[in-house]
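Quiz preparation item.
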């Protein structure tokens, strides 16, 4: 998963892009990059957090009226430096690009492009999108030609992706895959008569910088903003949307709004659904404890609904990154204890309703249950707002290997035993649908039904590659 933010204005956008990227840090912590255009393309990218990649001096160098920022967490590609985004090409004219998402036919497309002219150097799928796009462009610029090239990308590049581009001396192009699997919002602000238009993976980076959310880029829609801030948009594909449910469950910031649904509201609703399911078990508990931070929202609603105290029995060290972002299993296992500190007075002798957003590999859940028991919990009842994740994601969430997904291997009862909980309860898929209230969702990781079909070879290659990457990072 990655985060992108792009802004075009008649004044320097770098302060907003930089601050926006700080609000996108939760979407990726491996590398950060900015490309801007001011008489020439300026590109700075490196491994690390936004705040460590850019110095004041560098931001000064990037100063421009148009810029794109990217925070990266790799789903395809493992070399941090080569694969860090943004990327650029110079033919037929200079273009800078960053994206969020994943292609299912990446390997095949890369092969095809390299047979032609050996142009793809990284193993990052955005480079493939860039070359398909650039090769479809005529020498002469026109907005119509840009849209035709996006159409070509839609025809060739299969998967889930949101893309931002800087077109030298012309403006900013944004588009979203034909199913709108990955999110992309648009916002606007006018300060002292100077207008700016911005795009981002979620609304938070834009609202924190004073933008007003206009809405979402639609499935298969391309939007071009020229240097006079005039907008042209076109719908270039007709498929039904399939928005990734995991954005609301876990990935996006609680303050963000996607597809007109507040992430916070969705999580509150997930907590209410869990409460309904819990009531049916007939079990008794003493306290609701959320696994910070994502599940705090759902946990608070659950506690309210079943009339139990809500207590922060686990406190998060906020200076340690999300555990799954650390590529190897080994790192993840060690970091759970570093990250979560138990508050014994809220745990000892209690029957705890532990709420987490999801169980992916099961590693974290097992550690947390043990942590609570080691600190005297009488019972640990584990509640997950997300239904069992049984199938890999090929559209940009890091759930690539069936072998790694605990719910793909084990039944609910077996998982309960494996993580050491006294009871395990998942929201059902129907409960999730009710909580989100969005008709067009991608639920592939819960149902195995993929809105964009995944070639069999890709499936196994993808799994193998990701497992190897994890080994390399150990
Ligand atoms: P685990 O079950 O050990 O993989 O850890 C799952 C926890 O990590 C969940 O509660 C989430 O908070 C978080 N998480 C979210 N997305 C992912 C992901 N793609 N891979 C691993 N962990 C994730």
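Solution:
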């Amino acid at each position: 998963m990655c985060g992108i933010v792009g802004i075009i204005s008649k004044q320097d956008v770098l302060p907003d892009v930089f601050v926006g990227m700080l609000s996108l840090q939760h979407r990726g912590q491996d590398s950060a990059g900015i490309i801007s255009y001011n008489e020439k393309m300026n590109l700075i990218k490196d491994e690390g957090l936004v705040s460590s990649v850019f110095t004041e001096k560098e931001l000064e160098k990037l100063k421009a009226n148009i810029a794109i920022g990217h925070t990266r967490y790799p789903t395809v590609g493992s070399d941090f430096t080569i694969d860090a985004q943004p990327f650029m090409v110079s033919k037929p004219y200079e273009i800078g690009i960053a994206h969020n998402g994943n292609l299912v036919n990446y390997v095949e497309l890369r092969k095809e492009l390299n047979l032609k002219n050996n142009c793809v150097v990284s193993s990052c799928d955005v480079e493939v999108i860039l070359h398909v796009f650039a090769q479809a462009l005529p020498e002469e610029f026109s907005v119509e030609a840009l849209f035709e090239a996006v159409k070509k990308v839609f025809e060739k590049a299969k998967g889930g992706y949101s893309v931002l581009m800087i077109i030298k001396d012309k403006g900013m192009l944004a588009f979203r895959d034909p199913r709108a699997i990955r999110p992309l919002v648009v916002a606007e602000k006018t300060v002292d008569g100077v207008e700016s238009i911005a795009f981002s993976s979620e609304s938070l980076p834009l609202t924190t910088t004073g933008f007003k959310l206009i809405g979402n880029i639609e499935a298969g829609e391309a939007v071009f903003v020229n240097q006079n801030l005039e907008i042209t948009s076109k719908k270039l594909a007709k498929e039904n949307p399939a928005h990734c449910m995991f954005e609301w469950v876990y990935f996006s910031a609680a303050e963000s709004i996607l597809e007109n649904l507040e992430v916070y509201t969705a999580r509150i609703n997930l907590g209410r659904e869990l409460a309904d399911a819990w009531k049916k078990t007939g079990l008794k508990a003493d306290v609701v404890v959320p696994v910070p931070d994502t599940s705090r929202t759902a946990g608070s609603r659950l506690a309210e609904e079943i009339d139990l105290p809500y207590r922060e029995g686990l406190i998060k060290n906020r200076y340690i990154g999300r555990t799954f972002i650390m590529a190897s299993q080994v790192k993840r296992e060690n970091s759970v204890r570093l990250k979560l500190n138990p508050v014994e007075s809220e745990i000892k002798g209690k029957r705890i309703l532990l709420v987490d957003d999801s169980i992916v590999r099961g590693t974290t859940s097992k550690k947390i249950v043990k942590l609570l028991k080691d600190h005297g919990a009488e019972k640990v009842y584990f509640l997950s707002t997300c239904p069992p994740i049984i199938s890999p994601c090929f559209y940009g969430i890091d759930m690539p290997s069936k072998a790694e997904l605990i719910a793909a291997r084990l039944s609910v009862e077996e998982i309960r035993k494996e993580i050491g909980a006294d009871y395990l309860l998942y929201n059902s898929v129907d409960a999730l649908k009710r909580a989100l209230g969005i008709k067009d969702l991608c639920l592939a990781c819960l149902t195995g039904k993929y809105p964009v079909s995944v070639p069999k070879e890709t499936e196994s290659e993808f799994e193998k590659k990701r497992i190897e990457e994890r080994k390399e990072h150990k």
